[in-house]
Amino acid sequence: MYAIIMAGGTGTRLWPLSRKNKPKQNQCVLGDKTLLQATFARIKKLVQVKNIIITTGRNCLNLICQELPGLSKSNFSTEPSRQDTAPALGLAGMLIEKRDPEAIMVNINSDAYVKDENEYRRILALGEKITQENPEYTVAIGIEPQYPETGYGYIKKGRLFQKVRQTEKGKEDEIYYVDSFKEKPVLEKAKKFVESGQYLWNPTLFFWKVKTFIQLLKKYQPKMYAQLSRIQNAVGTKNYASILEKEYKEIEPISIDYAIIEKNKKMLVIPAEFGWSDVGHWQSVQEILANEKGQNVVQAKEFVSIDTENSLIYAPDKKVVAVVGLKDMIVVDSPDALLVCPKSRAQEVKQVVKMLEEKGKGEYI
After folding, report:
1. Are 228 and 247 in contact (CB under 8 A)?
2. Which alpha helices (H) appear in 22-180, and where do they start and end?
3. Bridge-partner residues for 182, per DSSP?
4. What CATH architecture does domain 2-136+202-264 belong to?
5. Which among 146, 205, 246, 365 could disulfide-bond with 141, CB atoms 3.0 to 4.6 Å apart, if both were Cys?
6. Region 30-56: what's the mean pLDDT?
7. Would the CA dihedral through 346, 349, 351, 352 be positive or negative?
8. What pLDDT, on the 0 to 100 scale, is given for residue 170?
9. What is the pLDDT of residue 169?
10. Which of 249, 250, 143 minimizes the C-alpha distance to 201?
């Protein structure tokens, strides 16, 4: 199995910590490891290091090499420009097919939190097994929802495909056909999803036989397939860099969800529970780090507070921070920017980044 770690995002909802030249996956948001280092450490216990491919942009390549020393050029699929997730995954898939046409590949986001790593790896091993046995199918992992989250996409389960017994635990894993994918819902719809028991959170964690993935790319994105094929044909030649540069930047940006996933009729899903959370915005950071509901999460040299609860105070630059009367708030300080917002509006931080970009304030993003 090959693992493709997707590390090309900008993480705008974690601004002002996350910046273009050092996005969230390269930040120590949850501890002393960056999110990418934590992801790599989890997966290398299941997949050989030589079979781990990191997709990223050129601007972050040196940074990643410093974070993960000892990797070779073959561990990277470097994008000349940001064209969204379908081209990024397509390029990595083409490189894997060139190396091992019989491979299974799994794509993994670099910015997620996993509480139970042993269960995580067990489910990934099961995903590999199901894909090997059913190579014509794409196999998704779905997370049993803990609450009606509006920031995640959902997978609706169809009828039962099969059960797989866990010999060591004496229980069974259930694998289902995928009925459909649902975009991020409004709160009322999210509540109905959770209450129905038919829906799973979508962590965009998919297994494919690499041949099947390439066939789907050819079927649903023929122009992209042709462009990526020209890049693949140049692998190992002196013209690779120039052909990659020319072809890749002309690919139409599109997410893997729209390009293939939502069009694919042969999909299975494995429901899982391993304490997964998308570290997508500051509210999720606070909820992951809080030891108990309502607790403040603080990173500061010195912190004093009066009547403050359930808030995130992030001021790592050796400042004394004092707050009075805050509840359900986010305060993030950096050398050149300060963010203050209610936790409930953490998703909107990306709009702040967009506004700064429109104002020509690129030095702050």
Report:
1. yes
2. 35-43, 58-67, 85-99, 117-133
3. 154
4. Alpha-Beta Complex (3.90)
5. 205
6. 95
7. positive
8. 66
9. 65
10. 143
* H helix runs in 197-281, sequence order: 210-220, 222-233, 240-248, 256
Peptide bond into 16 cis (omega under 30): yes
C-alpha dihedral (214, 97, 203, 87), degrees to nearest 10: -60
pLDDT at 158 over 90: yes
95 pLDDT more than 80: yes
Tell which residue, 145, 157, 153, 151, has the closest CA to residue 195: 145
Q: Which CA distances in Å does 208 have to 98, 136, 139, 278?
A: 15, 8, 7, 22
What is the mean pLDDT of the segment spanning 41-57?
95
Does residue 337 sit in helix, strand or coil?
coil
Q: What tokens were used for 346?
A: 């953490």
| Strand positions, DSSP E, 144-205 | 153-166, 171-182, 199-202
Give pLDDT tens digits for 213-251.
Answer: 999 999 999 999 999 999 999 999 999 999 999 999 999
pLDDT classification of 316: cutoffs 50, 70, 90? confident
**pLDDT average, residue stretch 280-288:** 90
- N- to C-terminal Cα separation, the chain: 36
Angle at 280 between CA 274 and CA 282, to 5 degrees: 110
Where does residue 73 rank: exposed (0-12), middle (13-18), buried (19+ CB within 10 A)? exposed
Alpha-carbon gap, residue 342 to 64, rounded angstroms: 32
- Segment 26-32 long-range contacts (CB within 8 Å, at least 24 positions apart): 26/60, 26/63, 26/64, 26/67, 29/279, 29/285, 30/113, 30/279, 30/285, 30/288, 30/289
Per domain, the residue ranges of the chain are 2-136+202-264, 283-364
Measure the CA–CA gap between 51 and 13, rounded to whole angstroms. Answer: 31
Rounded Cα distance between 222 and 173, Å, is 36
What SS3 state is found at 147? coil
Kindly list the strands in the beta sheet with 329-333, ordered across the sheet, starting from the edge strand earlier in the chain.
297-306, 312-324, 329-333, 338-342
